[in-house]
Amino acid sequence: MEFTEEDKRNWLKMWGFIEGSPEAEQAWADKLALHNGVAAQHYVIGDISAYRSMATGQIVEGRSAHREHLRRHNLVEVGNDLDKATPKAAKPDHRLKETIARQVYEKLRYT
């Protein structure tokens, strides 16, 4: 997808940049780089701090120890994807309700 000058103006306005300023040009260049799949800046994710395992009570220090602890004790880390793991509730089948009601009404008419 190619961006037009109007797209650029609208985007800069939306994010509060002054058109033509060096900050605006850098922000637009970063947006284009991200859109094209090129990271504008590199970063390093820091190691996780030590914590006490809820499963065993031992202290786990660092990301690799965390992964090993999960693997060793057959644990699963719960995160933001919890809604994907939970099954969706089945929609009620109204045909079953209608069938039961029809059978009840038939029995009531003949008694």
What does this structure look like?
- This protein has a two-stranded antiparallel ribbon.
- The protein is built from 5 helices and 2 strands.
- The longest helix has 16 residues, at 94-109.
- Among the domains are: 5-35, no CATH class; 45-76, no CATH class.
- The mean pLDDT is 83.
- It has helices at 5-14, 22-35, 63-72, 82-85, 94-109, and strands at residues 51-52, 59-60.
- The chain is mainly α and 111 residues long.
Q: What is this structure's SSE topology?
A:
Blueprint: H1 5-14, H2 22-35, E1 51-52, E2 59-60, H3 63-72, H4 82-85, H5 94-109
Antiparallel strand pairs: 1-2
The major pleated sheet works out as: 2 strands, antiparallel
- Helix percentage range: 40-55%
Spatial shape: flat
- Strand-and-helix sequence, N→C? HHEEHHH
What is the overall pLDDT average?
83
Keywords:
111 residues, mainly alpha, two-stranded antiparallel ribbon, 5 helices, 49% helix
Give a quick summary of the entry.
The protein is mainly α. It contains five helices and two strands; from the N terminus they run H-H-E-E-H-H-H. A hairpin with a 6-residue loop joins strand 1 and strand 2 (59-60).
